[in-house]
Design brief:
Layout (H helix, E strand, L loop, with lengths): L12 E4 L2 E5 L6 E6 L4 E4 L5 H17 L8 E3 L5 H4 L9 E5 L2 H4 L3 H10 L4 H9 L6 E3 L2 E5 L5 E6 L9 E5 L5 E3 L21 H12 L4 E3 L8 H14 L4
Parallel strand pairs: 4-5, 5-6, 6-7, 11-12
Antiparallel strand pairs: 1-2, 2-3, 3-4, 8-9, 9-10, 10-11
Helix pairs in contact: 4-5, 6-7
Keywords: Hydrolase
GO molecular function: hydrolase activity
Organism: Streptomyces albidoflavus
Length: 246
């Protein structure tokens, strides 16, 4: 969870057909979108209710342009940091997914609110988002599949602990496969190990991430530009060195 300054404008990139990603301003967090004939899955929800509403508008506009479903039907939250979850209440009616334990982590709204204010979100915005925070009803212990119609089947994988105790990755099969990593991988800054990180387990989580996507997948970090498997492997090795792990 980082504040990297002003990010790019609101513009979807499409690393694979029907698979979008958006670099949100201010904290440069990533939101993802997987589109099928009957549904659309959003990955992460932004850092405030206002950002969540803007993200919903951007997603719905992208869906209209591609002739997909009219709204986001599913929301996957990769981990319990404010810049990825505080906009979730903007997606009314969406089925919300997260790793087992994320529901409990998100009840600690006081910690999330104080973290948001410490990283620059206004106290009023942080309080409103904390009060409206959405808790996932669909909890993933190993892997789960979200059906979006046709051949679009998205895999949710509980790969943590690592960056947090409840890290979820999202694999969208296609040409190429696209893996949304959450903050298990960061490109626009050094991976952040806060008080809720488990550094000794993080390299193992990245091993599982690489096994999930394979050598030819596109990997979408929680912050920054799209990367490849070699970048993820190098970051895995650097984390092991940083925390003096074998």
């Amino acid at each position: 969870m980082n504040a990297y300054g002003t990010g790019p404008e609101w513009r979807w990139e499409w690393p694979a057909p029907g698979v979008g990603r958006l670099r949100l301003p201010r904290w440069d967090a990533t939101a993802g979108l997987a589109v099928g004939p009957a549904g659309a899955l959003l990955i992460d929800a932004g850092a405030s209710l206002r950002e969540g509403a803007l993200l919903r508008h951007a997603a719905e506009q992208a869906l209209r342009e591609r002739g997909g479903p009219r709204r986001v039907t599913h929301l996957a939250l990769t981990h319990a940091h404010f810049d990825h979850v505080f906009g979730a209440a903007a997606f009314a009616g969406a089925e919300v997914h997260g790793a087992v334990g994320l529901d409990t982590a998100l009840t600690r709204t006081g910690t999330l609110e104080s973290d948001a204010v410490r990283h620059g979100l206004g106290p009023r915005e942080a309080g409103e988002a904390a009060d409206a925070l959405v808790v996932p009803r669909h909890l993933v212990s190993g892997e789960a599949v979200v059906e979006l119609g046709g051949e679009r089947r998205v895999l949710l994988a509980n790969l943590g602990p690592g960056h947090t105790a409840h890290d979820l990755a999202v694999l969208v099969p296609g040409t190429p496969d696209v893996v949304f990593c959450g903050d298990l991988v960061e490109e626009s800054g050094e991976p952040q190990a806060g008080p809720d990180a488990l550094p000794a387990r993080w390299p193992e989580a990245l091993d599982r991430l690489l096994a999930l996507g394979g050598p030819d997948a596109v990997y979408v970090p929680g912050h920054g530009a799209v990367v490849d498997a070699a970048f993820v492997r190098a970051q895995r090795d650097e984390l092991a060195r940083r925390f003096a792990l074998s």
